[in-house]
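Summary for the steering committee. The consortium agreed at its last meeting that each partner would contribute one worked example illustrating the joint modelling workflow. Our contribution is presented below. We chose a case with several input lines so that the handling of multiple components could be demonstrated. No manual editing was applied between input and output; the record is shown as generated.
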Amino acid sequence: MPGVEIKGALSMQIEIAGFPYLSAILITCVTGLLVILLLPEERKGEIKWVSAGFSGTTLLLCVYLFFAYDKTRGGLQFVEKVPWVPSLGIQYFNAVDGFSLPNLLLTGIVFFTGVLTMWQLQERVKEFFALYFLMVLGVFGLFVSMDLFFIFVWYDVSLFPMYLLIAVWGTTRKEYAAMKLTLYLFAGSALLLPGMIYLYVHSGLNTFDITALMQPGTFTTAQQKFAFPLFYVGFGILAGVWPFHTWSPVGHAAAPHSVSMVHAGVLMKIGAFGVLRVAIFLCPEGWQYWSGVMAFLAAFGIIYGALAGLRQTDLKYVIGYSSVSHMGIVGLGLSTVSVEGLNGAVFQMFAHGIMTALLFSAVGHIYDRTHTKEIGELGGLSRVMPVASFYFILAALAGMGIPGLACFWGELVVFIAAFKVYPVRTVVALLALVVSALFMLRVVQRTFYGPPNERYAQLSDVSFSSGIPRMILAGVLLLFGLYPALLFDVIETASIPFMNGLPR
Amino acid sequence: MIPFQAEDAIHMTVILATLTPLVAFLLIMLGTRARKNLSAGLSLGAIAISFGCSLLLLARLWNVREPLEYSTRWVALNRMEIPFGFLLDPVSLLMLSIVTLICLLVQVYSLGYMAGDPGFSRYYAFMSLFAWAMTSLVLSSSLLQLFIFWELVGLSSYLLIGFWYEKFSATQAGKKAFVMTRAGDVSFLLGLILVLVHVGNPAILEMNSLDSAGLMPSGILTFAALLIFGGIVGKSAQFPLMTWLPDAMEGPTPVSALLHSATMVAAGVYLFARLFPFFALSPTAMGIFLFIGTVSMILASTMAMVARDIKQVWAYSTISQLGFMIMGLAAGGYFAGVFHLTTHAGFKALLFLCSGVFIHTWHTNDIFELGKGGARRLKIPVIALVVAAGALAGLPPFSGFFSKEAILAALALSSHPVWLAAGLLGVFLTAYYAFRVLCILLFPPSAGEEPSGPVGGLAPAPKGSRQEGSSRTFIWPLIILAFLTLLLGFFQGPLQHFLLGEGKALLVDHGEQAGWLPFTALFLSLAGVGLAWAEFGRCGAARLSFVERIPFLRELFSRRWYLDHFYHFFVDRIVDRGFSKLFAQNDNRVIDGSIEAVSRGTLEAGRFLAFLQSGMIQYRLLVSFAVMVLLSLYFFYRDSGGF
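What follows is the complete predicted structure of the assembly.
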C-alpha cells in the first residue's frame, strides 16, 4: 500500500496525523448512545432529535472525509494508531482508503436517513435508538479499522443488536427471523475466528495489523488457499452469497424499516467489504485460486435471486431477493481479479446500499399507513400517495439498472470486467437483468398502478418533512448516476495500487 | 454536473438542442406539476428551441463532409474511458431534425388531445424526458453513450405507455414493452462489451472505420454484429420480439404517433444506419438481418390485414415498414433505408394523429364503428389520412412512393431474387391493408347504400359528435405533416447528396436499376388498393376480406402467428412456474430445510445431554450401572481373547 510507512508496524508507536476524524465518528456514535441512555424514556421527541443530531454529525464527518481525502496521494489516510494490547500485537488502528471511503459515506447517509425514517416510532423509542446506535457504531468501526482483531470485534458489535431490533420491533415472524439471522451470522463469525487465529499464528509476526500481514510472502500459497474460503464464507454469509442467503429475505422482511435500511443497505456491505479487506487483502493468492468458484456462486446467485424474487408476495421479501441478486453483482466484480472488477464491485456496494435504503424507506411509509406488505392487498397506491410511489418507483428503476441512477454504473463496469474473464457466467448473470426488470415492474404494477383501492383512499402521502430522508437518498442516487466519476476516482486510488502490488 | 465547456458555436447549439428538454423535464417534475399550462409551455418551449437548434445545425453543416465530433471526459476508469460526446454527421443531423420536428408537432397536438387529463403535467414531463433521451441518443458519439440513452428512451416509452396507470391493460402493455425490449437490450449490451473488449473503445467513428475488421476476428465481428442487432430487434419490434408494439397502443395516441411509430422504434433502424459500415464488414450478419427484416415485414403485414383496431393496424404497419427499412439497409441500400426512415416518420405520425382525431371524437378504436359513426365528415383529418395512406401504400406523388422504390431497387441488386419477391409481396399487402382501413372508414354500409350523402343515415355518435376534431391544435400538425408527405419525395436528390456526398453510394451502385421495377411495384400497389376497394369500398361490397374467408388464416393472423401464446407459455410455465417456483421452493425446503435440520439436531442433542445432566439419581445409577456392565464385558472379552 503506497503512501504508508510500514516500518512502524511492529514497533507499535502512537501515530496520529492531525485531527482524529475517524475516532471522532466513533466517539460521536458512543456519545449519542450515552445521551440516549441518559434521557428518560418518556421524552420521545428529544430522543429522536438527539439521534438525528448525532447521526447528522457523523454524516457530516463522513462527507467531509470523502471530499478531504487526497485522491492524488491515495493510500491510507487519516491514520490513527494506538497500541492496545502490545503483548498480542493488537492495535487500535484506524485509517481509510479508496475502498472504505465509499462505504463510510454510505453508512453515514443510511444512518442519518434511517433515523429520520423512524421518526414515527412510538414504542420503546429509547431502547430502539440506543440499539440502533450500537449497531451503526460497529459498522463504522469495521469500515475504518485496519486491525484484524478489531475488525472481528466490530463485526460482532454490529450483529448482536440486530437480534433485539428484529425480535422486539419487527413484524412478520419476527422471533423466527431474528433467531435465524443471528444463528446464520454467528455461524459466519464462527468461521472467521479460526481463520483469524490461523493467520495470526502462521504469520509469526505477532501482529493483527492488516498492512503488515498483507505484505507479500507473509503467508505461503497453501496457507492462503486454506484460509481464503474461511473468510469468504464467513463474511460471505453476511453478503448474501448464494447458497447462504436465505437469512436475508426473512431478516429484511421482519426488521423494522430503518433496521432493514441499515441491514440491507450497510450490513450486507460489511460482508462484501470483509471479503475484500480481509480475505482478498490477506490471501490474494487464495483469491486467485478460488476466484472461479466465487464467480460461479455470484453468477448463480444473481439469476437465482431474481428468479426466486419473481414469486414473492411480500414487498419486503421481493426487495430481499433483489438484494441477493444485486449483491451477487458485487461478488461477481470481486471474483474477476481485476481493477475494473474491484471498481465496479465497490461502486455497486455503494449504489445498492443507497437504492435498497430508499426502497425500504418507501415501503416503510406504505406499511405504516396501510399496515400490510402483501402485494396482493395493495394496488392503486399511486393515486393516494404519489410521492411515496415516486420514491419506490425511482428506487425500483435504479434496481433495474436504468442509466442515470447509480446502480447502472456498478452493474455495467462489473459486467464488462467479468465478461473478459468469465464470458459464460457473465451471460447467465446478464439474463437476470431481464428477470429483475420483470419482477420489479410486476411489483410496481401491482402495488402502485391499477384503480385506486377504496380501503386506502383516506391515507396520507409523504409530507415534505417526512420526505427529507427519501429526498436525500434519491438525490444521491441521481448524483452518482449522472456523475459516477466522483466515486470511481476515489475507488481507483485503492484498486490500481492494490492490483499492481499483487504478486503475479 | 458534467463539465460542459462549449468549444464553439456549433457545440453550444448542440448542447442547447439536447439539454433544454432535460431542463424542462426537471422543472416540471420539481415545481410546476400543479400548474398545467406552465408545464405544457415549458415543454413546448424547450422542444421548440431544440427544433430551432437542429435546423440551425442542418443549415450550418449542410455542406460539411467530415463528421464533427465533440467530447468531454465523463468517466475514466483504469483502461476504459467513457466520454460524453456528440457526433454530428449527415445521418445524425437528419434524424435530429426529424425527431425534434415530430416531437414539436405532437406536443402541439397533445395540447388538445390531453386537455383535461389529470396527469397533464406528468404527460409533458415524460414527453420532455423522451425528447432529451432521444435527441441525445441520436447525437451520441460512442456506442456506450448511445446505449445509455437507448435505455432511457425505453424508460420513457414504459412511462408513457402506462401513462393511464389505473387501466390494467395499459400497465400490462408498458411492462411487456419494457421487458421485451430489455431482452433485446441485454443482447445489445453483450455485443457492446464484445466490441469494447476487442476494439477497446466503443466510439462510433472508430467502429465504423475499417480498422475494426483488423482488430476483431471475423467470427467475433459477426457475432458482435448479431448481438447488437438483437437490440435493434427489440427496439424496432422485429421478429421475434415484435408483439410488444401492438400492445403499446394502450398509450395515448400522440404517444403512439411519436414514440411507437415515428421516432423511438425507428431508433433501432437508426442504429443500423449509424453502424452501417461496421455491420457491412460482416456479410453473414447482413444476410441474417435481411432475413429477419423480411420475416418481420411479411408477418406484420398479414397481422395488419385482419386487425379491427385502427391503432393496431398502424402498429403492425410500423413493424412491417421498419422491417422493410432493415431489408433495404441489409441489402446494402444505405440511402434507401435512411430515406424511407425519413418519409415513414412523416406519414406514419400523420396516420396516427389523424386516427387520434377520430378516436378522440368517437371514443372508439374500432374501424367499423368509426366508419358508421361518420368519420368521413371530418374533412381535414380525412384528407390528411388519404395522403398518409397513399404514402404508405406507395402511390406516386407521395413521399412513400419514392423511398419504397429506392429500397426495392436495392433489393433487386441483392444476392437472391427471393428478397425482391418478398419486397414486392410486401408492397401489395401494405397497399391492401392501408386502403382496407380507408375504405371501411370512408364508405360505411349506410352511407354507401343511402344516397343522402355524408350526413345521411347517421346515428348520433356516442358521447356526442363534439367537433373538437377541428380545433386548431389538432389541425395544424396534420396540415404540416400532410404537406411534408406530399413534398418530401421530391427532395430525394438533395437528400441523397447530403447523406452520401458526391454520388458515392455505399456498397451498392444505384446506377444499374432495372427499368421494369417501378412499374411492377406501382402495379402491385394499385392492385392492393383495388382489391381493398372491391372488398370494402364499392357499393354492395361484402365487407369481408379474402383472408377472413379462410378461417385458418384468419385465426393465424389475428392471433399474431401465436407468438404471444409462445411468450405467455414461456413466461408463465417456464420462468414463473418453472425456475422461479423451483428456486423459491429450493430456498424453503432444501436450504432452509437443511438449516432447520441442523438446528433441530442441535436442539435434540442438547435436550439429550440436558437429560443426562438432569441430576436424577436413579438415571445416574442406571447409566453408571450400564457403563460398568459394558466395560466389564469389554475387559472380559479382551482378556479372554474374544476380540
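Residues 1-11 of chain A have pLDDT under 50 and may be disordered. The first strand of chain A starts at residue 15 and ends at 16.
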